[in-house]
């Protein structure tokens, strides 16, 4: 465990990312206490510029709503949707990849055709179509993002399983009479966890980007204040109130960046390079 | 004595901090003389190829020369800038590496890669270069040079690619040729051909050759002088004759003693016990279909009608080169690969047609020891778990299985406390011992050893072979020993089966095979063993 | 090669068929009456229109029959009718398709060229300040939401600095022709194509850098040095050519993202392509149009994949031989 942390912390960016993410998560948790007033409520005059009144440091939007409160509630939405949709994608993709890679043959063919189909279809367009047809709500958004994001997971898991399947210690396990299930869960899966974890952190980042893009297009859950929605709503008044688009965008950028950096740090920590041997 | 073409004087090469020792090369001095082959011998990690890389300025990142000189043509190579070194590379000093596939650019045709050498030094026109490339291919013995010139590397065999690499190195007729383990990745017969090629070319052109290797057999074949390296230092140097027949230093003696000898005795017990494993008419064909619409098939007859018998308490060797089918045979015996036809009978039971639960239960009667110590143990499982998994899968209670595992570890020469440790804490040789313990855990009747010592250094190899011989005696093991190394086969096997391209060419007592081989291929294989002549001469002298 | 293309086209047709089936499923899975779904929000109030749809698509017949009718329709390029826009969907889409093609192709070329060049530069100067700057920029571009950077670009370059136009395809009402018109369109293209390409620039830069570093450690590069070749020759002829292979593969995989990104870019820059059309369809709840665009964008992606696959085969002789 200590080794893991040592290697992770060598990547300075990853540590920064982790710090930032912790802040965001904390904000998401304490938001109801910090901002008891709903972000949809009008609290001041519209188009209050930032840094003019202490109580509303980031100003207000076209309907007089507190931008900072919006950011805080948006953090909840982004993280929630990001995490759950990634979990959904993993739940779909990992079993498919495991089965396809381990059993090979016809099963593999069928699964891969299925995966290819979902990878070929433009994912954002599909997400739009799904959310539009099933009406925007937090459930449909999470489902849509999950459905659109699982193919890379299946691909990755399948690739790893294929290379492990022919590794000698797996052959030894087969020879020792272990059942398929035991081999998959005890020999193969633990050795595929590292790349899955790295991929998962990057997927949360992508999910957040997807969610904000959908909200920007007006496909967000109408009851949830999200960063994408804030930017979308501010589009028409961009000339007078640049800050309404600016701050939520920075929030998205920094969160996604933090997650990417954490992913890189995890990669360094979980896949240490083999030391060069002197020849 | 002629003037040295190149002199290495008191060379020090440092490694980056955190390496297992401070110097890759520690106060090393030697000379290269024209018309002579100097062999630098050592095990992996000895630093033997470092000085060669330093000569060419090709040391990897973080590794730097920190003292001494390399004198060539009145210059100190260590003090030259990269542009200055570039003029020498290829033109005055040529270098060839170990992996021929990796040494050639997969996207460029062979003639272009050879022509590049001329281009790099601004010589000849484009068409002249290509013509010279074809000439060079002819000189290194490639069949149909004009066609080969237009080919891509992946279309050639390993031996042919290495010839191309040699052609590239010789193109500008350098004074010095550095060969860094050029035959290690090749089959034994191909190796014999390449060694002959290098010897012939060297004689014809009078080059100074520096040949780096770990194989003393190769040294016996081609070396004029030898330098033995250990942990960055030269422990002994002299003429090949002197080093091979009368080594002075302990390490040299140890290395030479570790080489499995080709001496076989007729006194080894021939098969008088009952047959245990019977293989009849085994077939396995691999079909790879390529192309999308019109499927062109490539058919490989990996096992072509093979029948043999293993007797109780006997060690049967299966030898052959790559593509002979010996590994496929091993895997078919344990049903990791399904044979297409034929039967495998173990103590009367037909193993080859069992399925499901019956197969799982029958698996404990036949086990395998694998080749790669770094890939045969689950990195995330403790040694105890690795060894006890088999018995546990067959119903043995965990505590008992772990106790047995501890016993087995002591049996193979490791401490019982290894049970709690993880594979990465052990060396290659120790991991192989763990693999042996794992194979023994299920108390199988037959063990298949698939190139079980091929990935180990020669001194470790000797230890593991001793262990296997010891266990054989104690436990009356019946082994099928698959290997490409005839020396190893001579040491440990009672009978030997020779395979070529899927067919069983010859099978018989070890002594018979080595002294009176019947088939032409067997003779070819035996002749190709590097250092055989010298050893036979020594044997004749001794008797 | 021809065989390969035919095989891939066959495969693509299969996928398109599956997409049509998917569209069909979605129409029927959506909440509400399928006819109302197909009519869209505006058309749903027109009883006559709905009755027409019912008859046309045989909505009173069995499901498999409906699927067959629907598929036949798509095969004849009848993608339905947009009530709101009062035009057949197919016409609407093909009217706007060229603009999207122009945008996505430009973004692709810009991102590939700049991205790979930056990657080569970063790998050649690995560990230096130049490398750090390039890598950090790539990291930031990779994390930046496309629609946001598009908005910021409009504010900065169009509104504040007034260097480039931020809306539309060409200057309306100016009546340019020939070269003048092309240049005008090009000026309008700069911001949208660059912002769309920003993310992919980062992707290609990182992939190229990693691939170059990996290939430079391989033995044949050492051999090239041992031959006495100049560093620049080694970089381009040996390292680059081999390092590009995975990047080409990656480019193919990115096609889907590129088309999806076009939706956002066209929305922000009011670029008259099918992405913008998708946004309008969303706002108007015009599901027929929406699904039609979805189908066409999938076809675009398939075509693009085919082109990159061919390119890969041309570049790598090992694949050609098999």
Features:
heterotrimer; B: alpha/beta; six-stranded mixed beta sheet; 21 helices; 26% strand; C: 322 residues; mainly alpha; two-stranded antiparallel sheet; 14 helices; 2 strands
What secondary-structure arrangement, pairings included, does this model have?
The complex is a heterotrimer of chains A (279), B (543) and C (322).
Chain A: H1 2-9, H2 12-34, H3 67-103, H4 105-120, H5 123-133, H6 138-165, H7 168-175, H8 180-216, H9 227-233, H10 242-270
Helix pairs in contact in A: 1-10, 2-3, 2-10, 3-4, 3-6, 3-8, 4-6, 5-6, 6-8, 7-8, 8-9, 8-10, 9-10
Chain B: E1 4-14, E2 23-33, E3 37-41, H1 50-56, E4 64-72, E5 75-76, H2 82-88, E6 93-96, H3 100-103, H4 110-120, H5 126-139, H6 145-149, H7 158-170, E7 176-180, H8 188-205, E8 208-213, H9 216-222, E9 225-230, E10 233-239, H10 240-245, H11 250-258, E11 275-290, E12 296-311, E13 315-319, H12 326-333, E14 341-346, E15 349-350, H13 356-362, E16 366-369, H14 383-393, H15 398-411, H16 428-441, E17 446-450, H17 458-475, E18 478-483, H18 486-492, E19 495-500, E20 503-509, H19 510-515, H20 520-528, H21 532-542
Parallel strand pairs in B: 3-8, 3-9, 6-7, 7-8, 13-18, 13-19, 16-17, 17-18
Antiparallel strand pairs in B: 1-2, 1-4, 4-5, 9-10, 11-12, 11-14, 14-15, 19-20
Chain C: H1 2-29, H2 34-43, H3 47-57, H4 63-75, E1 81-82, E2 87-88, H5 89-124, H6 129-143, H7 146-160, H8 178-216, H9 219-226, H10 231-253, H11 255-269, H12 274-283, H13 287-315, H14 317-321
Antiparallel strand pairs in C: 1-2
Helix pairs in contact in C: 1-4, 1-13, 2-3, 5-6, 5-8, 5-11, 6-8, 7-8, 7-11, 8-10, 8-11, 9-10, 10-13, 11-12, 11-13, 12-13
Description:
The complex is a heterotrimer of chains A (279), B (543) and C (322). Chain A has 279 residues and is mainly alpha-helical. Chain A has helices at 2-9, 12-34, 67-103, 105-120, 123-133, 138-165, 168-175, 180-216, 227-233, 242-270. Chain B contains 21 helices and 20 strands. A 6-stranded mixed β-sheet of chain B has the order 6-7-8-3-9-10. Chain B has a 6-stranded mixed β-sheet with strand order 16-17-18-13-19-20, with helices on both faces. A 4-stranded antiparallel β-sheet of chain B has the order 2-1-4-5, covered by helices on one side. The two termini of chain B are 35 Å apart. Chain C is mainly alpha-helical. Chain C is 80% helix and 1% strand. Chain C has helices at 2-29, 34-43, 47-57, 63-75, 89-124, 129-143, 146-160, 178-216, 219-226, 231-253, 255-269, 274-283, 287-315, 317-321, and strands spanning 81-82, 87-88. The radius of gyration of chain C is 24 Å and the shape is globular. Classes of the chains: A mainly alpha (279), B alpha/beta (543), C mainly alpha (322). The interface between A and C is large, with 43 and 50 residues.
